[in-house]
Amino acid sequence: MGGHGRVLQVGLGQVHWGVSNFGTRKLSQLLMHATIPPAVNQVEMNVACQQEKLREYCREKGIHVSAWSPLAANGAPWGSLAVMESPLLKEIVAAKGKTVAQEDLERMKLQIPQRRGFAGEIFVSEDGPYKSVDELWDGDA
Fold first, then answer.
1. Which residues, 6 or more positions from 32, have their beta carbon under 8 angstroms from its beta carbon?
2. Which residues, other chains included, contact 121 with Cβ-Cβ below 8 Å and sequence gap of 6+?
3. pLDDT digits (tens, 9 = 90+) for 56-76
4. Using CA atoms, how far apart are residues 84 and 74, in angstroms rounded to an integer?
5. What pTM did the predictor assign?
6. Which is higher by pLDDT, 5 or 135?
7. Which residues, listed in sequence order, are joined to residue 67 by a DSSP beta bridge?
8. Can you give 8-75 as a three-state secondary structure string?
9. Angstrom distance (rounded) from CA 117 to CA 73
10. Chain-wide mean pLDDT for the chain?
């Protein structure tokens, strides 16, 4: 039994732990073996990368989803302008006298093109564990 399980077994406290960038396939594999499921999965999420399939899976499994990069890492080398330069978002916020960064984007259920700010191509290799970007992200792209 691992250290976390032992803490629970002897009643020394609660154990909360999390993962980052796990798609549905990786979470499913993890849950088959974990005695304590992760409490949180931190993933890229914004209006241009809503990850609905992953969010629903996590909701069913009781795993909280924490959004990383709500503005799509605007200005970062791995980022995207998909949120900050979206014509639809600009139109909506202009009517309210706000900027895209000032708007509560989480509450917007918009149909805008979905894509990750960081596709992850550098982690794909014929010789590595991920042979394609789709495999890296568990088909949840």
1. none
2. 133
3. 999 999 999 998 877 777 777
4. 7
5. 0.69
6. 135
7. 43
8. HHCCCCCCCCEEECCCHHHHHHHHHHCCCCCCEEEEECECCECCHHHHHHHHHHCCEEEEECCCCCCC
9. 7
10. 80
